[in-house]
Design a protein that fits this description.
Radius of gyration: 30 Å
Structural class: mainly alpha
Number of strands: 0
Strand content: under 5%
Number of helices: 27
Shape: elongated
Oligomer: single chain
Length: 504
């Protein structure tokens, strides 16, 4: 006979929370939720209530100490009063949408009672050593984390004091998992315009989020970096930049990127640095000088060196995205007028990026190779003398042309490739090459003639359309390709006559 399934305390609590007495009247029409969603707004509100930390009403932690004390000076008594008042007085009563009202603390007390007497339905709760109250909080928090990805749900959350509840948890919780989930919910909320504006206007919330950069927990640091990245990419980026601008904060970001062994955290921290470089000019002017003083170019060079070593010694797919982010960050720095010299004069970077172009198998790192071509073109603009180091490098020439198919939809990358080609072939044309060396050059070009022809044919219509928007830029790109093709034709003709049979 099959045994009866064990009860789950979380499911039982949710069932109780959704059972409303039949005698409750329907809410007035002016109190009905006018929100188009498949999730009952009252359910979302009930989940928000369940996240309210137990200690926020008492203002003390489990040891009797002030739960709002802070070494960083941000968790002030004024903030405490604001959060407690908001959470106690302003969360809407869910009885207006025909569900039974229940204070979240009542549910937590019931879970604590079940934990004490051993009535744990889910075996994972009992074995993990995590208190049932915290496990239930995690489940409710993860549901809200997922729901916050939807704009309608996110807006409903911030209308019903989601930010205040998350702030309370960030202030009082000692659980790294609770901190991670709180930051994760904030990260999803920040993906939407209205919630993002509410986050920015929520007092010290941004500063408290920045404080989480100093935690020693990898998942929390990942979520903190993700949230800061979203802030710096949004319309309120200047406010985020000003909150982040102290050397204390920026040195922590550099330290994390330099010392973490976790690929996900490394990716998030580099993504944050890239967001700074690609943000508005005012953000760059606020944050970049300090980052440069803290050794940002050196950090990027070291990371690039490490990732290239990994790439050539062991192909690890999880590191491909990290290599691409490092390259994109270096490329973003190479186009900033006041700081490009730090990259363009760096021969180690040029050597590494040239090695990447020479890589025979590019399929798995195609995006990185495309970025590498753009970076080389940028470097050669400021350091034209470096062209001599690759002008006679046939593996580099072959590898550069191999990138063309991967860049078929990237006009900037294709133009960068042709720019490099023009510089290479002009350099060769001006130098004195033996007939055998010249024939080797032409042999590489002939072997890649299909790629060259396909790209030229594809760009004919692109050039026409682009010239209507920017004729000067289009002419420059056309001249680069004309120079390259002219050399190709002339060289092929001169070398083919004495050494080759005519081509039919």
């Amino acid at each position: 006979m099959a045994s009866e399934p064990e009860s789950n305390p979380v499911e039982e609590e949710e069932d109780d929370d959704n059972m409303a007495p039949s005698h409750h009247p329907s809410p007035p029409s002016d109190e009905l939720f006018d929100i188009s969603t498949t999730v009952d707004p009252s359910y979302i509100i009930s989940l928000i209530r369940k996240l309210l930390p137990q200690d926020v009403k008492n203002g003390h932690d489990s040891d009797g100490n002030d739960a709002f004390a802070s070494d960083q000076g941000l968790k002030t008594e004024l903030m405490k009063e604001r959060v407690v008042s908001a959470c106690e007085d302003e969360i809407p009563d869910s009885s207006h949408v025909a569900i039974d009202t229940m204070d979240s603390l009542d549910g937590f007390d019931e879970l604590a009672h079940q934990e004490k007497v051993g009535e744990v339905g889910c075996g994972g709760f009992e074995d993990s050593g995590i208190p049932v109250r915290e496990k239930a909080w995690e489940e409710y928090g993860c549901i809200l984390w997922d729901l916050a990805a939807n704009r309608t749900h996110a807006e409903l959350m911030v209308q019903n004091l989601m930010l205040e509840v998350l702030l309370a948890n960030l202030l009082v919780s000692q659980s790294m998992r609770v901190m991670e989930i709180s930051l994760g919910i904030l990260g999803n909320l920040a993906c939407h315009e209205i919630p993002m504006k509410q986050i920015v206007s929520a007092g010290k919330l941004i500063e408290i989020v920045i404080d989480q950069l100093f935690l020693d927990d990898t998942p929390c640091l990942c979520e903190a970096c993700r949230l800061l990245t979203l802030g710096l990419q949004g319309s309120e980026c200047v406010i985020w930049a000003k909150a982040l601008q102290s050397e204390h904060n920026l040195s922590r970001i550099i330290w994390v990127a330099e010392n973490t062994l976790n690929p996900q955290l490394l990716e998030k921290s580099i993504g944050l640095l890239l967001a700074i470089l690609e943000s508005q000019r005012e953000v760059v002017s606020i944050l970049l000088p300090t980052l440069m003083n803290l050794g940002l170019p050196s950090l990027l060079t070291n990371l690039f060196t490490f990732e290239m070593t990994k790439l050539t010694s062991e192909r690890t797919p999880e590191r491909y995205s990290i290599l691409d982010l490092v390259l994109r960050t270096i490329e973003a720095l190479s186009v900033l007028d006041d700081y490009s010299k730090e990259i363009c004069s760096n021969k180690e970077v040029f050597s590494l990026v040239s090695d990447l172009v020479r890589l025979p198998d590019k399929v798995e790192v195609a995006n990185s190779c495309i970025t590498a071509a753009v970076l080389i073109a940028n470097i050669l603009i400021d350091s034209a003398d470096l062209i001599s180091e690759i002008s006679h490098d046939l593996p580099f020439l072959e590898g550069l042309l191999d990138i063309l198919p991967f860049a078929s939809d990237d006009l900037e990358a294709r133009s960068a490739i042709w720019s490099i080609m023009a510089r290479l072939l002009v350099q060769v044309q001006e130098s004195e090459l033996s007939s055998s060396s010249l024939q080797q050059y032409v042999s590489v070009l002939v072997s890649k003639s299909d790629l060259i022809e396909d790209d030229l044919l594809d760009r004919q219509s692109d050039d026409y359309n682009e010239s209507n928007m920017n004729s000067i830029t289009s002419d420059a790109k056309l001249n680069a390709r004309t120079t390259a093709v002219s050399f190709y034709v002339n060289s092929f003709t001169s070398t083919c006559h004495p050494f080759c049979s005519p081509i039919a």
